[in-house]
């Protein structure tokens, strides 16, 4: 029901969710989750909690984990941080690319809850890092072993989006999807254009990994509904590559930093079955960044490089009073 995910008026949204999705999708999703479930629970939650734990071992700053929906919740995470006395918060969305249905909705939700619980405190947000050298370096490092083992083709599969989301996120109102090469033409729209940022990730990865031209391609997965979504579609691209004679296909999913249903089941199981059915021999899924040392090091750097903003007010009750937290008169945290 998030209007940034299903961007329709509330009555239409409710009709789609309660009339079309909930009566049928849970059974299908349940079977898919069953195929990748871990003893500890959902792969996404398990890996994310391990990431939090490993990161906390590296830094003295309190590290909290929150999911945009369900548990662990944003409210619980912020409550825990406030109780620890945190009044300078750095939010790192685990979405490398900007999209209204992922990065934007997470940032908006955290801002709202942080403002409710700590209205006078500071909040900084890590901007999309789709082409930052450290992120690209970590991606290449995580894929290096499988790249070096050899392959016929490398497919970059990003989570798909409805085309209308790109148009809604375009601040110019006249660039995204308006021309054939819109993502290759410089524009302020690229700051919030998911598609352009995905292309930038692939370009930076290819340069860093020294991929041969023609040895890789891009596709978008997980489409839902009848509206036009970004193309080419991953499932159809996997079939096409198999029919074209590709025998060993590598697939990497840079839109996800942790393996989840969309990588493990959609690509690693269904994608592999489809590839082999249509003539391919071997489809290998390159794991997401997960707990890779290069990814942990990148997150550690972002945290340690974070410079808290100047506080909005003294934490003392009145000017000149001793701070209740450190007993220093007029001290600002």
CATH architecture of the domain at 133-285, please? Answer: 3-Layer(aba) Sandwich
The chain-level mean pLDDT equals: 92
Shape: globular
Helix count equals 11
CATH topology of the domain at 133-285: Rossmann fold
Q: What is the CATH first-level class name of the domain at 133-285?
A: Alpha Beta
Strand content: 5-15%
Largest sheet: 4 strands, parallel
Number of strands: 6
- Measure the end-to-end span: 38 Å
How are strands sequenced across the largest beta sheet?
4-3-5-6
Helix coverage percent: 40-55%
Brief summary of the model shown:
The protein is α/β, with parallel strands linked by helices. It is 43% helix and 9% strand. Mean pLDDT is 92; it is low at 313-333.
């Amino acid at each position: 029901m998030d209007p940034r995910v299903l961007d329709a008026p509330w009555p239409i949204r409710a009709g789609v969710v309660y009339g079309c999705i909930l009566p049928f999708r849970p059974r299908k999703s349940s079977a898919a989750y069953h195929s990748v479930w871990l003893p500890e629970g959902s792969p996404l939650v398990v890996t994310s909690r391990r990431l939090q734990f490993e990161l906390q071992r590296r830094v003295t700053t309190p590290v909290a984990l929150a999911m945009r929906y369900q548990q662990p919740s944003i409210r619980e995470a912020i409550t825990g941080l406030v109780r620890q006395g945190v009044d300078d918060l750095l939010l790192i969305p685990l979405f490398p690319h900007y999209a209204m249905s992922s990065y934007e909705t997470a940032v908006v939700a955290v801002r709202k809850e942080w403002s409710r619980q700590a209205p006078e405190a500071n909040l900084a947000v890590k901007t999309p890092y789709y082409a930052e050298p450290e992120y690209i370096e970590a991606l290449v490092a995580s894929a290096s072993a499988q790249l070096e083992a050899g392959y016929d083709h490398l497919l970059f599969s990003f989570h798909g989006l409805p085309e209308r989301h790109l148009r809604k996120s375009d601040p110019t109102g006249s660039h995204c999807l308006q021309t054939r090469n819109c993502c290759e033409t410089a524009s302020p729209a690229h700051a919030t254009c998911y598609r352009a940022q995905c292309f930038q990730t692939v370009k930076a990865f290819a340069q860093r990994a020294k991929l041969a031209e023609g040895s890789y391609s891009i596709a978008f997965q997980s489409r839902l509904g009848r509206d036009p979504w970004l193309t080419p579609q991953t499932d159809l691209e996997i079939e096409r590559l198999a029919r074209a004679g590709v025998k060993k296909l590598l697939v990497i999913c840079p839109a996800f930093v942790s393996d989840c249903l969309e990588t493990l089941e959609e690509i690693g199981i269904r994608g592999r079955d489809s590839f082999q059915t249509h003539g391919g021999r071997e489809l290998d899924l390159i794991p997401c960044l997960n707990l890779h040392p290069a990814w942990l090091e990148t997150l550690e750097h972002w945290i340690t490089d974070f410079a808290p903003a100047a506080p909005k007010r003294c934490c003392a009750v009145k000017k000149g009073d001793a701070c209740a937290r450190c007993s220093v008169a007029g001290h600002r945290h």
